Backbone:
């Protein structure tokens, strides 16, 4: 069995507020991503999904933990070595307008990574940019336009083309469709699926739209208050959720086939600067007991041989 493309172990990112008080945005996250695999990362707003993606790519320096990409430990790499490796791992941002330089044309935007990483000469770069624009479904004449002259879907396609310029093996897609019109979202998701098939890409796909996550993901990780509380195959997580938080998230998906009462989340997530003891979810959990209030649940695999399905819950059974 080949080693994973990406290995994350005990990843932590804390933001200090004042002396001895920090926001634990990411607090002990662990997962792998295989070559060509898509891992969906879901959870409520503010649970730490985007911070996790940025910490994986070292855009935010982790407080602790390990991140291995193609067997290389990223957290201890010197800046020059990390810069070279970044050609192999890129990011597609949530807001395509904010992530594009308004002073650069489309062609200049997609060419910039090639220049930064010293890839090709001028003629080769022009050919590469033309091929990338065609790959993401944009006409060649769009290269002379600027971000304000593009639609939201076109801007996101430019962002994807820029991310693909250096031929990466891993893309971190941070809610890449949430800022787009509903009519455009399906086009971008289908584009990402097709690019994965053509190029053998692996994705860390961060989103809160669970229907989209199920469509695109091989496995799904559910995050709550900086921790992953459930991780398994997409079908297993959606059809047989083990954690009460996952069950509540899935119950919120509109379905004409659902009958009877459904679990509903009450209250707001706790303050990440002062999380509750034991299981972080216990103040909102219908199954909470004194054990949950006092003791943090250990990670357990309740899946079947060959199909791991992990959960951090005292009462998952």
Residues:
């Amino acid at each position: 069995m080949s080693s994973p493309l990406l290995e994350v172990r005990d990843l932590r990112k804390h933001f200090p507020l004042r002396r001895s008080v920090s926001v634990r945005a990411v607090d002990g996250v662990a997962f792998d991503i295989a070559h060509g695999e898509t891992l969906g990362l879901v959870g409520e707003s503010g649970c730490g999904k985007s911070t996790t993606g940025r910490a994986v790519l070292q855009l935010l320096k982790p407080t602790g933990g390990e991140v291995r990409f193609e067997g290389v430990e990223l957290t201890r790499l010197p800046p020059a070595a990390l810069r070279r490796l970044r050609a192999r791992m890129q990011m597609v941002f949530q807001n395509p307008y904010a992530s594009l330089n308004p002073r650069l044309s489309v062609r200049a935007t997609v060419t910039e990574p090639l220049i930064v990483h010293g890839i090709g000469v001028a003629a080769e770069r022009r050919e590469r940019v033309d091929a990338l624009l065609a790959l993401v479904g944009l006409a060649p004449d769009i290269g002379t336009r600027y971000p304000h002259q593009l639609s939201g879907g076109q801007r996101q396609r430019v962002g994807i083309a820029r991310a693909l310029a250096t031929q990466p093996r891993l893309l971190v897609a941070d809610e890449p469709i949430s800022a787009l019109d509903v009519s455009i979202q399906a086009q971008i998701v289908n584009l990402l699926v097709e690019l994965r098939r053509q190029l053998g890409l692996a994705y860390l796909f961060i989103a809160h739209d669970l229907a989209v996550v199920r469509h695109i993901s091989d496995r799904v990780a559910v995050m709550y208050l900086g921790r992953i509380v459930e991780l398994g195959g997409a079908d297993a997580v959606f059809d047989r959720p083990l954690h009460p938080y996952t069950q509540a998230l899935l119950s919120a998906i509109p379905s004409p086939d659902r009958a009877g009462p459904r679990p509903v989340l009450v209250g707001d997530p706790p303050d990440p600067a002062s999380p509750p003891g034991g299981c972080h979810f216990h103040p909102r959990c219908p199954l909470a007991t004194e054990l949950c209030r006092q003791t943090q649940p250990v990670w357990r695999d309740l899946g079947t041989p060959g199909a791991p399905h992990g959960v951090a819950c005292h009462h998952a059974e």
